[in-house]
Amino acid sequence: MDFQTYPFLSQRMPLFACNGVVATSQPLAAQAGLTILQRGGNAVDAALATAVALTVVEPTSNGIGGDAFALVWDGTRLHGLNASGRAPAALQAEAVRAQGYTEMPEDGWLSVTVPGGPAGWGDLHQRFGRLPLAEIMAPAIAYAEEGFGVTPVVARNWSRAAGHYLSLRDPAVSHWAEIFTRNGRAPQAGERWTSPAHAQTLRALATRGVRDFYEGELAAKIVQFARTSGGLLSAGDLAAHQSHWVEPISAGYRDYEVWEIPPNGQGLAALIALAILDGTDLASHPHGSEASLHLQIEAMKLAFADAHRYIADPEQVDVPTTGLLDPIYIAARRELIGPQARVPEPGAPPRGGTVYLCTADRDGMMVSYIQSNYEGFGSGLVVPGTGIALHDRGACFTLEAGHPNEAAGGKRPYHTIIPAFLTRVGQPVGPFGVMGGHMQPQGHVQVVTGTVDYGLNPQAVLDAPRWRVASGLKVGFELDTPEYVLQALAVRGHQVEIGVKRGDFGRGQIIWRLDEGVYVAGSDKRSDGAAVGW
């Protein structure tokens, strides 16, 4: 892989290391993973140590009560894990509509689905792990018991979340303040934060096993909390949960292949957009130019139109994944891109708060991993005495009657969190991801095009100004996007929005493996994170 020099995009250099790399959004979590690598653990062990540590040191974006997805390159082939949970069996869209909702709520019990994260940890460890789970979880437990210094971006997000959760009137949400505030306020940057309840729960998972979350003492505490505070989640819902090993899906881009987890995740949206762009001469336009951005934005809007219409739980409905990537269908969608911005409709294909991390070890194993509580701390519900913040992934269901993603018991919702992986002629290049709701497939497109078409190194491609498709003709741009580019895009009909919150543009991590086995990695400037290696 050859990198061109675009010094104006980044003043930071990427990391180069031979023996192993961990990249994530919080430096203490990255160090936890690196420590496990140095103790003889493999890339999966390091990913798990990092993921568990993130539930402690970055609780504003993920927790024990969230979902997860992973892609694992085992040295020979790619494996996919879908560790997302299902809605409680008792959930009915009609009953939710009868309560006056037109959209699924983002707080409270109606937004809670079975958390799949702990089961995902166990499944990854059972299949690929080398070190004992107790040793892998030890750094996270130490951070929870002994405390850690809160980092600036986490502190900012914590303060924003506190304003939201403290304003909620649902009595069931009151436990959030008990666990996650200090005398009613969020911790500030540089303050020491401890969470004894969190440590106790992690120790239980390490000693009794992750199934304790679904069938043991922890499960009993979750069910008791739901029963006494109006939740639909039952013992049967938890006991029935299982992760699923899945075949990753891909799309060719130039002489590379981009890999994603299949639906119910939205990785398909990134593949559709890249397949559309593969038929354009994107590299003939300078990086960051209005012509280049226009093509990418229009391709992304076409991809989202189809993704939001068709992506749902494939065990419940027929998701036309093959049809949406069919070359004839993709070509027809590409023809819809003209010189002016437009609002596309879904096509008719032929039928057939989040943290991200990536790791790599000296043997060539690489992991692309993502977990999330969705919005901030999730539903606002914290199981008393455990530190378990339950996610609000059920908010991603729709209440539109007859829609493939309509809320229903036992169904998995449209999922925004998506790990990704890049290969070239079947050989591994490496893991990458960009967290942040619907920014994620858009971030994937910008990482791939910046890397493949424009030769940017991992740090430069992460530091480059980003765009984000919103709704209709609205597109958000970061403040460092040149003014002349924004003006040219406005002439094309794009409704340009500037000054959108920095967090809206995601936070990414990348590890690429070079020809001689050296890794090159980058970590997003929009987070507190780091890429560390040895």
Short note summarizing the structure:
This protein is 35% helix and 18% strand. By secondary structure, it is α+β, with helices and mostly antiparallel strands.
Describe the protein:
The mean pLDDT is 94. This protein is globular. The protein is built from 18 helices and 21 strands. The chain has 2 domains: 20-245 and 355-395, no CATH class; 259-353 and 417-533, Glutamine Phosphoribosylpyrophosphate, subunit 1, domain 1 (4-Layer Sandwich), CATH 3.60.20.40. It has helices at 27-38, 43-57, 93-98, 117-128, 133-146, 152-165, 174-180, 196-208, 212-215, 217-229, 235-239, 267-278, 290-310, 321-324, 327-334, 439-452, 458-463, 483-491, and strands at residues 15-17, 20-24, 67-73, 78-83, 148-149, 192-193, 244-246, 249-253, 256-260, 354-361, 366-372, 382-383, 388-389, 420-424, 427-435, 467-469, 474-477, 495-498, 507-513, 519-523, 530-533. It starts with 14 loop residues before the first strand and ends with a strand. The longest helix has 21 residues, at 290-310. It has a 7-stranded antiparallel β-sheet with strand order 1-20-19-15-14-9-8. A hairpin with a 4-residue loop joins strand 3 and strand 4. With 534 residues, the chain is α+β, with helices and mostly antiparallel strands. It is 35% helix and 18% strand.
